[in-house]
Design brief:
With 423 residues, the protein is of the alpha+beta class. It folds into three domains: 244 residues, 3-hydroxy-3-methylglutaryl-coenzyme A Reductase, Chain A, domain 2; 104 residues, Alpha-Beta Plaits (2-Layer Sandwich), CATH 3.30.70.420; 50 residues, Orthogonal Bundle (Helicase, Ruva Protein, domain 3). The strands form three sheets. It has a four-stranded antiparallel beta sheet with strand order 3-8-10-9. A four-stranded antiparallel beta sheet has the order 5-6-4-7. A two-stranded antiparallel ribbon has the order 1-2. The longest helix has 25 residues. The N and C termini lie far apart (51 Å). 43% of the residues are buried.
């Protein structure tokens, strides 16, 4: 790959952007055709993916630039409808390059499968009885997926705990499964369903749920970066970001929006690569609240040189094989653009993108307010909503971006004025 540090990438035509990415990552003529065709998904294929299909919903697929992570350049594919997200991530990545870009890592792809038992007469003793046959249970679980075991994955441990609930004490077992490069939901569910009857026999009581947990605390991803004080806008910007972070970390109303901003980039990447966005969101927001209150997923500090240092850690259960990742034509191209070799690498890159997104949002709010940059990029949407046709669209956008604030009413007025002058 050539560098992702492409100046003024947004000024290139769509054709030029596609060609630049294609040349950098080695997309085929067929890949380019799929991207240009839109979703790349036919109705026939869609009909096999979910139930009751009546059509398809497309989203724009953009590419964030400038990302340098662990010394490697990445173009970041992002599927999202919200303006400014791709541009913000690119700007943050460009600023991070001044001090060497992002560092990132991810844990093994360990997922949790839960087995719930109720009405266990002696739950603490039952826990010990099941532990005595853990080796046999792991062997039985791995018998459901010999291919995964041959790849070096599979069930690796079985733990348990007694949980007090409004319905009384319950015995909960966690089967830990290394899913390698898959997200792993189907595999984990099959394994816990397979061993549940034996667990029930050993423990007593009744088995209820046998299901994956989306709180993947054994599958953490993290990233960190230093942002040069002068590059971000000076000491007052650093101070402002630190204050904004402290606010988000202390107040749940602000924290919800702060973490939503982080997930803008992560979810856009997940959607582009065919990963389960709902699972990722659920795991991240639950993890942010494990202390008993909502906390910021990212942390911001100042080092001894006065530079801003950001870090992030969150569970990211993502895969590079299986599900829509392997079946959706554009998802496969997105992974090709990313050039990630493993699910761990994908998770690490996602963490870096989440940190970049948080930095960009905090800096924008401190420097100029989020609405200014947001509405400039939203001008095209407003112009189209107001009825601007292709022959006047660029002129409408040009007029709107001259305004201090941009509203739909402004767009209608500009469109009407241009049409009247043209008649």
């Amino acid at each position: 790959m050539t560098t992702s540090d492409v100046s003024e990438f947004y000024k290139l035509t769509m054709e030029e952007r596609v060609r630049r990415v294609a040349d950098s990552v080695g997309l085929s003529v067929e890949d380019i055709g799929t991207l240009k065709a839109g979703s790349g998904l036919t109705l026939d294929k869609a009909d096999y993916m979910i139930e009751n299909v009546i059509g398809m919903m497309q989203l724009p697929l953009g590419v964030a630039t400038h990302f340098l992570i662990n010394g490697k350049d990445y173009f970041i594919p992002m599927a999202i409808e919200e303006p400014s997200v791709v541009a913000a991530a690119s700007l943050a990545a460009k600023m991070a390059r001044v001090k060497g870009g992002f560092k990132a890592s991810a844990d093994r792809s360990i997922m949790i499968g839960q087995i719930q038992l109720v009405e266990v007469p002696d739950p603490h003793a039952a826990l010990q009885r099941v532990r005595e046959v853990k080796g046999s249970l792991l062997e039985i679980a791995n018998g459901t997926n010999p291919t995964l075991v041959n790849l070096g994955g599979g069930a690796v441990d079985l733990t348990g705990r007694v949980v007090d609930t409004e319905r009384g004490r319950m015995l909960i077992f966690h089967l830990l499964v290394d899913c390698k490069d898959a997200m792993g939901a189907n595999t984990v569910n099959a394994m816990v369903e397979e061993i549940a009857p034996l667990v029930e026999e050993m423990a007593g009581g009744k088995v209820r749920l046998r299901i994956l947990s989306n709180l993947a605390i054994h599958r953490m991803a993290r990233a960190w970066a230093t942002f040069d004080r002068d590059a971000v806008g000076g000491e007052h910007v650093v101070e402002g970001i630190l204050d904004a972070h402290a606010f988000a970390d202390a107040d749940p109303y602000r924290c919800a929006t702060n973490n939503k901003g982080i997930m803008n980039g992560i979810v856009a990447m997940a959607l582009a690569t065919g990963n389960d966005t709902r699972a990722i969101e659920a795991g991240a927001h639950t993890y942010a609240s494990l202390s008993g209150r909502c906390r910021s997923l990212a942390r911001w500090e100042r080092n001894e040189d006065g530079d801003l240092v950001g870090s992030i850690e969150l569970p990211l259960a993502v895969g590079t094989v299986g599900g829509a990742t392997s079946s959706h034509p554009v998802a496969k191209i997105a992974l090709k653009i990313l050039d990630v070799k493993t699910a761990q690498e994908l998770a690490a890159v996602m963490a870096a993108v989440g940190l970049a997104q948080n930095f960009a949002a905090l800096r924008a709010m401190i420097k100029e307010g989020i609405q200014k940059g947001h509405m400039k990029l939203h001008a095209r949407n407003l112009a189209i909503m107001a009825g601007a046709t292709p022959d006047i669209l660029d002129e409408v956008i040009s007029e709107l971006t001259k305004l201090t604030k941009i509203t739909y009413d402004d767009a209608v007025r500009v469109v009407r004025g241009l049409r009247e002058r043209g008649t």
